[in-house]
Structures are given as C-alpha cells and as structure tokens.
Design goal:
By secondary structure, the protein is α/β, with parallel strands linked by helices. The protein has helices at 11-28, 32-62, 67-116, 119-122, 127-139, 147-168, 180-185, 188-222, 224-241, 247-252, 256-308, 314-355, 418-425, 448-452, 469-474, 481-490, 494-499, 521-535, 551-565, 600-606, 609-629, and strands at 377-385, 395-403, 407-411, 433-438, 441-442, 455-459, 539-543, 569-574, 585-590, 593-598. Helix 2 (32-62) runs antiparallel to helix 3 (67-116) and helix 8 runs parallel beside helix 12.
C-alpha cells in the first residue's frame, strides 16, 4: 500500500498533481479536458438564456409591450438557445465517442506498468493491493479520469457566480431612498451582507462538514482490511464463480458453502467498516444541514424582502430568485470542487506513485553478440540469493558453468532452489551476492531486452490465453502460420491440431469464442513447448513443465523435446531423476547448494545424494506399479 497518506499534501503539491493528471488525460485523448469544460459551460449558458427569456417575456407582458415585439425578442432568444444546444450536443457526441478510447488508453498505462516493472515487485504481497486500488482510483469518482470533469464543473461554478452577479447587480446598485431596515435590505450593503452570509455558510458546510464526511469514507476505502476484502471477493467472483472451468470441482466436491462462506465473510468485513463510518458521519450531517438551511433561508428571505419593499418588478422576482440561486449554486459548487480537487490529488498521487515505482534492475547497454555459431558460455560465480524481505538464503555459493549445445539436467527435491536458479539466469531476479556472466561479462551489463531474447522458458505454471493457437504459440497477433503449425506438430500435437475446427486459428477456451476448444493439461504444456520452439532462442529451459504427468509421459516429452532442441543449450529441471538420464550432465541441488555434478552413471557410482534419491524413487515406482497392477 502507498504511504502517500503519511503526510498531508501541500497546496503546491496538490496543484502539481492535478496538472499532471490533466496531462495524463490529454495523453490518453487530446482535447479531453477542453471538451468537458466546454460542455459544462454551454449547458449553463443555455440555462441563463432561458432565465433571461422568462424574465423578458413576463416584464414585456407586465409593461404592455406589443405582441410583435415580444414574438421577435422571443424568437431571437430561442434561436440563440437552439444554436448553443446544437453546439453543445455536437461536443457531447464527440466526447462520448472518444471516452471509450480514452479509458482504454488510461487502463493500458497502468497495465503496461504492471507488466514491465521489475519482476521482484510482483511478488511483493502489497503490490496487487496497490494495483487494484490504483485501478479504482483511475476511474473512480475522484480518480484520474474525473479531474477533467472536476475542471469542467469548477469552470461552470465560476461562470455561474460571475454571470449571476453581473445580471443581478443592475437591480441592486441604485439607492431606494428608504430608511431603517427597509433601506438596509434594499441597499447594495444589504445585498453584500446576504452574499457574505451565503458564502460563509456554504464554505463552512462544504469545506468542513462535507470534507469531514468525505475524509471518513475515504479512510474506509483505503483501509487495508477493506481493500483486501474487496480484492478477495472480486477474485472469488471473477475467477471462481464466473469461471466455467471451476464448475466441475464446485459440483463434485460441494464447494458452494465453502466459497459462499468466504465471500460472505468479506462482505461482512466491509459492512462493519462502512457501518462504523456512517455512524461517525451522522454528526457531520447535522452541521451540514444547518449550514444549508442558513444559506437557502438567506437567499429566499432576501429576495422576498426586496419584493415586499417594492424593489423588484413582478417579472423580475422569479428571475432574481433564480439568478441568486444560481450564484448560490456556484458558491456551493466552487467550495465542493475545492474539496474534490484536494481528494482527487490524494487519489491521483497513489496512481502516480505506482506509475513511478523505479525499476531497480540495471538495464545495461552492451548488446548481446549475434553469433552464427551460437558459442555462448554462462557461468555462476559464487552466487548467493535471498528473496526481498527474507533473511534466509535460497541459493548459497553457486558455482556453475556450461556452454551452448550442452544438455544439463538440474535435479533435486522440491524447494532446493532449482527454479530460483533459472529465474536468476533469466534476470527475473539479480543475485544478492556474486555474479552471473555471459562470455565472461556480467549479465547485468547487457541490454536487458536483448539478453531476455536469448531464452525460451517453459515453467511448470506456464500460461496459455484465450487467443488462437497460432497467437499463443507466436506470442503475437502477427505470426507465420506455416512456422506455427510446424512447431505445434514437432511438439507432438499433430493429430489434435488436425482435429481443430479452424486449424492453427482455432481459439483456446470459450471465454471469447463460442467455438473455442478445451485442451488437457498435457496438451497445454505441449503448446507451451511449441511456443518455446517458435521463439527460436539459443537457450531453452524446461522448468518442471510436466510435473503433473506420470514419469513415463514426462520422459517421452523430454526425449522428444531433446530432439527438437538440436544443438541449442537446454536445461531440464525435474525432481524425477528418470526423466533426465539422456542429458550430458546432471547437477544435483540440495538445500540451496550444488551437491554433485556428473553423468547419470558417474553420480550413481558416487553413492551420494543422487544415488539415494534414485534408489528411493525407483523403489517408490516399483511399489506403486505393484499396487496399481496387482
């Protein structure tokens, strides 16, 4: 969670944030703020023109003007009102047509940040909470996208105050000649006093009582318990209840009570927090209503007294009240917009704090060599690593070297550090101590994007998306169909591909295409293998992608993929030793260290860690086979 609330923002900081928010909206859609301002001002202009028309007609009738003169004046005013409305509707249509693009661009800015930030940040338990909060603050009531709307509203409020005052002043600047209370009410000083009372009460109402109310509710929205409850509830709703692939388990294991119970717990947590806030705000509501009564009473009382003392003609009584009410609305709105700008600045700051999270990983500038012979050599030199916020080392003094073309198996029990080593090699993390080199140069000095292009990795939890098979394999909307088909066939899915209704263009899953196909876990992993082959990287890593399969199937896939890899370097990670016997070298890890290295036969002859693991697994599968086929 952001620590942006640790200190109150100064007025200068608030202005800076608001201007940045406007720039961000303009970056998403040029002219977005101006269109909002123009729409609001034109709406109010039409409103004032209607008031003037009403006043002109009533006064004309009261003064006995000719019908032709009244009709001409009315037609002129109606024509002006119509022109204003036409322009306003045109701008509003343009605003509506651009809003979808504007919102998509804003959302993409946040998503791009999430997908491009250092991988280490994604594993911070607080990061997803921050991201979800920022997404709310992007489109929320007082979020980034609301700043142009607030700017339009505050422009309208200023417009209301100025125009209303200009139209009212002619009726109050003359001296009535009356004395006493009547003279005070009908004098400019009386009008000024009424304005002061209205302004003071509105500012107290909005800048104190209403602000206290908003602040109380905002504190609830920022409460970590509320953020976590909302995120949990949304996760169950979006990824469990509304996910058709969860339906089987929910029904077979009668998980409805479990899931609904957790969702109800989240809802109750939210209810308690909001109920407490509602009770707290009740006292602010009393003060708010009192100030509102004073300001409204002053407006209507002052207008009625001026009419009683004969200072308002019959046709101007309604117009005066309407204009004075508009001035009141302007003062109310202006004081409210100050609140909204302040709170919007706080929400926008959370978004900008997220967008400004620095990439601590050094990007490097040295280009990776484009070698036709693929002669690359990687080396781990006394590498230690511990995860951020942890004091326990996951890897300890790792020294390892291999060249392109070699096939290495990385084996060991679960949790011994195999996958972490691969993440370091791919620069998803950087070593805590020591260095990793490519051709003798620290990998942190290479251009990050070019370095990442050297690797194709298939993780145990590799993901496929609801795109076509070709798009999944190429990881792009544009791809070579023949090459994609070849990679899919080489990964062992020829028969399945031939049965697909649209071949390589068949969609996976039914999220976005009713003709999409469901695929098994084994088929999904083979498509991930095809994706690794399609990339054509010099270095391929299989990080237990077949852990859910039986050892024989895993061995078959690894053997087949070994043929596909050809002369490229490959690392096969597995905790099942039988799958990696074909490798040139096997590295055994234990407790974050390299315990042994050698061929399968050499390691068995050492009678060490590998030998004991091999014996234990061989006995397990022997016993299991006996039970299964007895």
């Amino acid at each position: 969670m952001s620590d942006s609330r640790s200190k109150k923002l100064t007025a200068k900081e608030q202005r800076s944030i608001i201007f940045r928010a406007i720039k961000l909206n303009e970056q998403a859609d040029k002219g977005y703020t101006l269109r909002n301002v123009l729409c609001e001002i034109l709406s109010i202009a039409d409103e004032y023109l209607s008031i003037l028309l009403l006043s002109m007609v009533v006064n004309g009738i009261a003064e006995g003007k000719k019908l032709s003169s009244l009709l001409l004046s009315t037609a002129l005013m109606v024509g002006i009102c119509l022109a204003v409305q036409i322009v306003n509707k045109y701008i509003k249509r343009r605003e509506s047509s651009h809003k979808a693009r504007h919102d998509i661009q804003l959302r993409n800015m946040l998503n791009e940040k999430l997908m491009s930030m250092d991988y280490v940040h994604l594993e911070d338990p607080d990061m997803q909470n921050r991201y979800n909060m920022c997404m709310n603050y992007l489109f929320g009531w007082l979020g980034v996208s609301s700043v142009p709307i607030i700017a339009g509203d505050i422009s309208v409020d200023i417009f209301r105050i100025i125009i209303g005052a200009v139209l009212i002043i002619p009726s109050i600047i003359h001296s009535s000649g009356k004395i006493g209370f009547a003279g005070f009410i009908t004098s400019p000083l009386g009008f000024l006093s009424a304005i002061i009372i209205v302004t003071a009460s509105e500012f107290i109402k909005n800048l104190y009582f209403y602000r206290k109310t908003l602040k109380t509710y905002e504190d609830v929205r920022r409460d970590k318990r509320q953020v976590l409850s909302n995120r949990t509830y949304s996760a169950y709703m979006n990824y469990v209840v509304n996910n058709y692939r969860s339906g089987k388990e929910i029904r077979l294991y009668s998980e409805q009570e479990l899931i609904l119970g957790e969702m109800e717990r989240c809802a109750k947590e939210n209810y308690k927090l909001w109920l407490k806030a509602f009770f707290k705000c009740h006292k602010y509501g009393i003060g708010y209503d009192l100030m509102k009564l004073i300001s409204r009473g002053t407006v209507y009382g002052y207008a009625v007294l001026r009419a009683i003392y004969g200072e308002l003609p019959a046709g101007e009584v309604i117009a005066f009240i309407m204009l004075f009410t508009r001035v009141l609305l302007g003062i109310t709105g202006f004081s409210n917009q100050i609140n909204f700008f302040r709170m919007s600045a706080e929400q926008c700051k959370d978004v900008f704090d997220f967008l400004d999270i620095p990439d601590e990983k050094y990007q490097g500038t040295i280009p990776t060599e484009k070698r036709s012979d693929n002669e690359y050599e990687f080396e781990f030199r006394h590498v230690y690593f511990k995860y951020p916020g942890s004091e326990q080392y996951v890897l300890k003094d790792i020294n390892l070297k291999w060249r392109i073309g070699e096939k290495m198996a990385l084996v060991g029990k679960n949790g011994c550090g195999k996958s972490t080593l691969v993440k370091l090699l791919c620069r998803l993390y950087d070593p805590t101590e020591g260095e990793i080199t490519l051709n003798g140069i620290d990998i942190r000095k290479y251009n990050y994007e070019e370095y990442m292009a050297l690797f194709s990795v298939v993780f145990q939890d590799s993901k496929l998306f609801s795109f076509s098979i070709g798009e999944n394999v190429a990881a792009s909307t544009e791809f070579d169909p023949e090459r994609a088909v070849d990679c899919v066939r080489r990964s062992g899915l020829s028969e399945r591909l031939d049965s697909m209704p649209d071949g390589i263009n068949t969609y996976i899953y039914k999220n976005f295409d009713e003709h999409g196909v469901e695929i098994s876990g084994g088929e999904a992993q083979k498509l991930c293998l095809a994706r690794a082959v399609y990339k054509g990287a010099a270095f391929i890593v299989l990080d237990e992608p077949t852990a859910a399969l039986d050892p024989i199937s895993e061995h078959d896939i690894y053997t087949k993929f070994n043929e596909i890899v050809g002369t490229r370097t490959a690392i096969y990670i597995s905790h099942r030793l039988s799958s990696c016997r074909f490798c040139d070298e096997i590295t055994v890890m234990e407790d974050g260290k390299i315990a042994e290295r050698g061929s399968h036969q050499e390691l068995l002859e050492m009678d060490g860690v590998y030998s004991s693991l091999w014996t234990a697994q061989a006995e397990y599968y022997k016993d299991t086979a006996g039970e299964l086929f007895a």
